[in-house]
Amino acid sequence: MSRIEHKHCKKIEPAIDRFQEAHYWIHMLEEHYHRADLFRWHLNVFLKAIKEVKDILQMNLQNLPNLLKFCKTERARLKANPLISALSKKRDFIVHQSRLVPNSKGIIGICDSTRKIRLGFGVPIDPLEDSDIAMMRYVEFLRQTGIEHDLILEPDEDTIPCIQREWRLPEFEDEIVSLCIVAWMELGQIITNALELLEDPHEGFSLDCRRHNKQTYTTKLYDREKLIDNVKRTGDEWLHQELIWIPSGRPTKSN
Fold it and tell me: Based on the number of CB atoms within 10 Å of its own CB, is 234 exposed (0-12), middle (13-18) or buried (19 or more)?
C-alpha cells in the first residue's frame, strides 16, 4: 500500500507503516543472505519491527472498544504462537542483553540454471563470516593439495559452482527467512481482519509478494573460470588468512 486514503484505514496507518517496514527488512535479509554481518543486523531490525506492529495496532485502536477487545484477543493468540513468541524473545534478547548469532551451515557444490543442487557436500559456515570465505577456503584447499580435476570446477556448461547456505534458529527446523515470512503473514492477517472490522477492506493492502524465492536467496553462484584461475595461483597471490576449515571428504557424482 503506497498511500492510505480511506478514513477508517487511517486509524491504523502507523501499524500498517511498521508492518510494511518489516516486509522491507525481509527483502534485505534475502539480499544480504550471504553477508554475515549485514544479515544479522537486518534480522535485528526485522525482529524489532515485527514486535512493534501489534503494540502500535493496539494503540491505534484504543479508543474503539469493540476493536480493542479484538486486538487484545489477537495479541493473546500471538503470544501463544510458538514462532511469534520465540521471535519476540529474540528481540528482547538483542535489545537488553547481547547480539544474536544464528546457526549457519551450507553446501559447496554445483547447481543447474534453476539453482537446484546437482552435486555437493555439507560444510559448517562460521555465522560471523560471509559465504565467500567458505568458497575461498575450498579453493585454497584445492590449491594446496594440487587437485587438478575437481568435480565442482570441472568444465560443464550445464552446471554452476555455488554455495547454498542456511541460517537457522535452534528452536526451529526451517531456515530463518522462511520463519520471518510466516510471522509477517500472521501479523498481516490480523491487520486484514482489523480493516474488515473497520468496514474498510482496503484493496491497496495485500499480503501477496512474489519476490520471495528460497532457492534464489539461499544459493550464491560463482564464476567457474575465476575459481579455476585462483586454484592455479601460487604463494600469496590468493589468500592471506589462516585456514580454519578444511573439507574432510571429496564430493562424488550421483547417478
Answer: exposed
Cβ 219 vs Cβ 111: under 8 Å: yes
Rounded to an integer, what distance in angstroms lies between the CA atom of residue 178 and that of residue 241?
Answer: 34
Cell output for 236: 600469496
Mean pLDDT of 141-159: 79
pLDDT of amino acid 27: 94
The structural domains of the chain, with segments of one domain joined by +, span 9-100+175-207, 103-167+223-232
Strand 219-221, strand 160-168: pairing: antiparallel
Side chain identity at residue 74, one-letter code: E
Stated as kind and residue range, the H or E segment containing 27 is helix 13-31
* Of 180, 160, 167, nearest in space to 124 by CA: 167
Beta bridge partners of 163: 108, 220
Q: Which of 11-15, 24-28, 53-57, 112-116 has the highest mean pLDDT?
A: 24-28
Q: Cα–Cα distances in Å, from 237 out to 129, 134, 148, 240?
A: 21, 18, 18, 8
Please list the helix, strand and coil fractions of the chain in percent, rounded to the nearest 5, in that order.
50, 10, 40
Q: What is the pTM of this model?
A: 0.82
The DSSP secondary structure of 91-149, one letter per residue, reads: HHHHHHT-----EEEEEEEEE-TT--EEEEEEEE--TTS-HHHHHHHHHHHHHHHT---
Query: What is the CATH architecture of 9-100+175-207?
Result: Up-down Bundle (1.20)
Phi, psi of 66 (to 5 degrees): -70, -35
User: Parallel, antiparallel, or unpaired: how do β-strands 117-124 and 160-168 relate?
Assistant: unpaired
Give the relative orientation of helices 36-60 and 65-79 as an angle to the nearest 10 degrees.
150
Q: Identify whether the C-beta of residue 99 lies closer than 8 Å to the C-beta of residue 89.
A: no
